[in-house]
């Protein structure tokens, strides 16, 4: 067993010392304590076969492994993080996992990630070779960065088993260690597969909800006073969840509504059945309140003013176009 601590390190050297220890134990990364003068952390290392257990107690900090760091210091290992106390927030790719005691998450050292520790926390982290799980699960992208909740029966059994191992490794001989490590990895793979199925069900539910929301928006696009509260009420969801649905799609709710209104106006400008309608009549009909704002927005979206766009698509004179 190895043990490292910042408690006897001078305050001015705590950050550099901890970064040096963490980078040697895990892989190169950057760590920023909330208050470097009083920051304290410790780390205990044990090993079982080819699994490395690192128990960490740390004050508030942010840990980042950026694309630039990965370019100069590559690693191909996986980290299982089991929350013991406090909380952490792990971001990898488009996924965010907020861990509370009993929760766990698998993340990939070969991809950028950010770990925020907003309060004093305790974690059990396990460093393992990628092949250990690829042999059991195949491609791992769908499993990394995702939260496994303590409420899940399989995840709860798995984390309980893994938490026992660092306390027992010194009394386990080599042959038994290999068998136990093998069984632990089987249990982890089972929990990840179970969690993936739950996430897939959740994703299906979100997809159906956002389709329902988009249908509501389409029906009410012409209402210039359409609000987030109106849409949420009609969909039977909270405003916060509504905003979260669109954030997950990479666009705000208001930006989506504006884009759909502009697309409806563009369709009208391309229709020979609507040549008798003025540009302002069409834009007001699709929920815009100000002609100048509409014209600027249309140009930003489609690279030319609405009058020019309409003329070019319908081969009409300027007089007929507006």
What would you say this structure looks like, in words?
By secondary structure, the chain is of the alpha+beta class. The protein folds into 2 domains: about 1-205, Jelly Rolls; about 220-320, Arc Repressor Mutant, subunit A. It has 12 helices and 12 strands. A 7-stranded antiparallel β-sheet has the order 1-3-4-11-6-9-12, sandwiched between helices. A 5-stranded antiparallel β-sheet has the order 2-5-10-7-8. Strand 3 and strand 4 form a beta hairpin. Helix 3 crosses helix 5 (about 175-220), helix 4 packs antiparallel against helix 5 (about 175-220) and helix 5 crosses helix 6 (about 230-235). The termini are far apart.
- Major β-sheet strand ordering: 1-3-4-11-6-9-12
What gap, in angstroms, lies between the N and C termini? Answer: 80 Å
Our count of domains comes out at: 2
Average pLDDT rating: 88
| Order of SSEs | EHEEEEHEEEEEEHEHHHHHHHHH
Hey, roughly how much beta strand do the residues contain? 15-25%
CATH topology of the largest domain: Jelly Rolls
Total helical elements: 12
Uncertain segments: 317-322
Oligomer type: single chain
Please name the CATH architecture of the largest domain.
Answer: Sandwich
Please name the fourth-level CATH homologous superfamily of the largest domain: Jelly Rolls
Number of strands: 12
| Radius of gyration over all CA atoms, rounded | 27 Å
User: What top-tier CATH class of the largest domain fits best?
Assistant: Mainly Beta
